[in-house]
Structures are given as C-alpha cells and as structure tokens.
Design goal:
single chain, mainly alpha, 17 helices
C-alpha cells in the first residue's frame, strides 16, 4: 500500500496547474501589445511613440476598472472552495453587469487624451496621433472589461483551458490584422497607428464572443438564467468595498510607471521609446510572477472557503519560493544580455542606445516586483485589500517616483535615474507587503460572503 501524497507536493502540483495556464493567458494578452510595438517599431520612432503613449494613457483608466472587477477573485474562489454554486452564479453575473456599467466612465476618461497629454508636456509630434489611437480604442472597452470579469471568475473556478484557447486565437487574429492594417496588404492601405488601434478593437470583440462558447455548458449555466438577486445595491456595495481598493492599487502602480513614461517624454522621444522597449521586455517576464500571484490568490481563497488555515499557509509559502526562484533567473538574463533582448523589439539604433542602459536595471527591479505582486495576490485571496493599497501608494510614489525624479533631474542621471527610483520603490513595496502578509497569516481566516444578510464582508 503506497503512502498518501505529501500535501506540499500536492500544493506545488496544483499551483503549477493553475499558474502555467494563467501565465500563458497573461503572456497572450501582453503579446497583443508586444506585437503591436514590434510592428510599429519598424515603421518609425514617432509612430512607435504614438502607440506607446496612446495605449498607456488608455490603460491607465482601464486598470482601475480591472482592479474593481478583480474583487471576483476572493469572492468566487472562496465560494468555489465552499461549493456554493448560487453565490458563484450571482457573483459572476454581478461582475458582468458591473463591467458594462464601468465601461461608460472609463470610455469618457479615455476621450480626454489630447488635452491631458498636452498639459503633461508630452512631445508635440506624438500627442495628436496618440489621441486618435486612444479614441479608436474606446470601442474596445466594453468587451475587454466583460472579458476581465469572466476571466477572473473562470480562473477562480480552475477553468483555464477556454481562456488559453481564446487568447491564443485572438493573438493570431491581432497579428494578422496588424500585418494587414498597419503595413497595408490584401487591398488595404497601410494606416500605421490607427490601423494598429482597429486591430486591437476587433481582437477584443472577438475574445468576448468566443469565451462563453468555449467555456462549456456548465459555466454558461452560471451566467443564465439571470438572478434577480444580482442587482442589489447592498451586494454591489460589498463588492466595491473589496474591489475599489484593488482598483486604486492597480492605478497607483500603473500610474507610477506612466509618470515615469511622461517624465521620459520631457527628456525627448528617444528616451521615451527606449523606456518603452525596456518596459515591454520587463512586462513579458513579469507575467510569470503575475500568473503565480493569480494562482496563489485562487488557492488561498479556495482553502479559506474550505476552512483550512494550514493549507492557506502552505499555498503562500509555495508561491513565494517559486516566484523568487523564477525572477532571479530572469534578472540574471536581463543583466547579462541587454542588447540581444532589445533587438527583439526594435532595430532603431537611437532607441537601442537608451534601452541597453535601462534593461539591466529592469533585471534588478523585477525581482522585487515579483515578490510584491505574489504577496499582494495572497493578501487578495484573503480579501485584504485596503492596507495593501496604502502600502502601494507609499512605495510607488513616495519612494519610487520621488526618488527617481530627484536622481534624474536635479542630480543629472537622466533616464537611468528614473529607473533607479523604480528599483527603490519596488524594494520598499515588496518589503512592507511581505510584512503585511506575515501579520495576516497570524490571524484567523473568515470567508467573504456577498449578498447574504446574515453574513458580513471582510476586507
């Protein structure tokens, strides 16, 4: 008779089965922007900067809504662990409704691109094109946010294969449309950055139409019939109590990187483009700890739903050790091979000159970035969202942006100075988030229940 499997081995296997597809999904979503950048980087430096600036401006507002919808992580994962199908169905439906409501203010905010970018002192030759790009991208906001709501729900239920299939298909479509619309093929005139924007719009609508079809009858049964209990202000307010701090946290983090991009723009188009190349590469490797973070959030939520404190602690330990090992490996690659990595994105020599100075710094900061995102994922699985938000505010802005600005301008370090600020900010953030996680692990865990009058929400 064989011995029962080790709970540690089971946890490692379970997290790998979750994390690998989630990393593929995240890489697939990132690949759309990466492919866009690769096409635009071969058009011209200005067109490359147009797409970088327009996309980053739109994403700054999208990330707030994405964070709010990420409240589905602890809600659905804990309901899944507790085998509460009714709560799962209402939460998923509520997420879809909320995604469509959020699309309206987010779209209106994106339309402010031109006056805001001008006020921020961005390059005059880039702003008009970036604003046109952002205006087109508004048409993709409703399907993208609805996709996010379904994605968060499906990953919380360990239903990952449909997500992988849909994202892979959307990537193929996006690359084909980039080739047709940016460069001009099969009878279409090349339209550069505007063609790039329309390729993204079409791909995102395709994703939201395909996902319910690929998800299977069991998942679709949670979407329909629509429950009258879905639209209840008390339930929605509880969801916002959890989700809004996550949205602000996402906004704080992405906003810090956007602030660095705008500060690079004040130095010139070359510095801004070099920064974007380096950030694109760092974003690819960051998808691995982000996937691990999502898997950790799901596992922590599942085990809280089941009422197993020991399993929660085991899930946290496995995710942190695995993430640290992976990110140290990526960091070494970035430090020792900056030029070959930069050439993957662009062959423009003036951009490469800046990028090779920044990529080694990306290798350093992403180790800390990986640790903080995994710690935050574990905290999110516990529905602890407010304190991590405050930690992000202090780490990314009071340390990261402030120190970077000081090094770049008064002290004259230029573009590398801004990135040294990011290193300092991420180190501080990781340290304090890990401290917060340690505190939470010492406390008892309680399931987050939405829409039940006899139970309150924690968070």
């Amino acid at each position: 008779m064989s011995a029962p499997p080790s709970p540690w081995r089971e946890e490692i296997v379970t997290q790998m089965r979750l994390a690998v597809p989630l990393v593929l999904v995240q890489l697939g979503l990132l690949a759309m922007g990466f492919v866009d950048s690769a096409f635009m980087g071969r058009v011209s430096t200005v067109e490359f900067a147009v797409v970088s600036l327009g996309h980053s401006f739109a994403f700054l507002f999208l990330i707030l809504a994405m964070g709010i919808l990420t409240a589905l992580d602890p809600i659905v994962s804990q309901a899944f662990g507790a085998k509460d199908n009714g709560a799962m169905a209402r939460s998923i439906q509520r997420g879809v409704v909320l995604s469509l409501v959020l699309s309206i203010p987010i779209g209106l905010l994106i339309l402010t691109a031109e006056p805001v970018l001008n006020a921020l002192g961005q390059p005059a030759e880039v702003v008009p094109g970036a604003a046109r790009y952002a205006r087109i991208l508004v048409w993709s906001v409703p399907p993208f946010l609805a996709f996010v709501a379904l994605r968060q729900s499906m990953q919380a239920m360990h239903r990952l294969a449909p997500l992988v299939y849909v994202v892979l298909l959307a990537n193929g479509l996006n690359a084909l449309l980039d080739w047709i619309l940016i460069d001009g093929h099969v009878g279409f005139e090349g339209s550069g950055s505007q063609g790039c924007a329309w390729a993204t719009v079409i791909s995102r609508w395709t994703m939201i139409f395909l996902l319910p079809w690929f998800s299977g009858a069991e998942f679709r049964s949670l979407l329909l019939p629509f429950s009258r209990r879905t639209i209840r202000w008390r339930a929605i307010s509880q969801m916002l109590t959890v989700g809004l701090p996550i949205g602000v946290q996402f906004l704080v983090e992405i906003g810090a990187f956007q602030a660095v991009l705008y500060l690079m723009g004040r130095m010139g188009t070359q510095e801004m483009a070099g920064h974007q190349v380096s950030l694109n590469l760092a974003s690819v490797s960051f998808m691995v700890p982000l996937g691990i973070s999502m898997a950790a959030s799901v596992r922590v939520g599942n085990e809280i739903g089941r009422g197993s404190s020991a399993a929660v602690r085991r899930a946290v330990t496995v995710s942190l050790i695995g993430g640290a090992l992976v990110m140290v490996s990526f960091g070494l690659a970035f430090y020792f091979a900056p030029l070959p990595l930069a050439r993957i994105v662009t062959d423009q020599e003036e951009i490469l000159t800046v990028a090779i100075l920044l990529i080694p710094l990306a290798g350093l900061f992403q180790v800390f970035d990986g640790l903080q995102v995994i710690a935050v994922g574990c905290l999110r699985g516990m529905a602890d969202t407010r304190v991590p938000m405050l930690i992000h505010m202090a780490g990314f802005w009071a340390v990261g942006v402030a120190v970077g600005s000081l090094l770049a301008f008064p002290m004259g370090l230029g573009a590398p100075g801004l990135w040294w600020g990011l290193v300092a900010g991420l180190f501080a953030t990781a340290l304090v988030q890990l401290w917060r996680l340690r505190i939470m692990l010492r406390r008892g865990f309680r399931r987050l229940v939405i829409d039940e009058p006899h139970e309150g929400a924690s968070g």
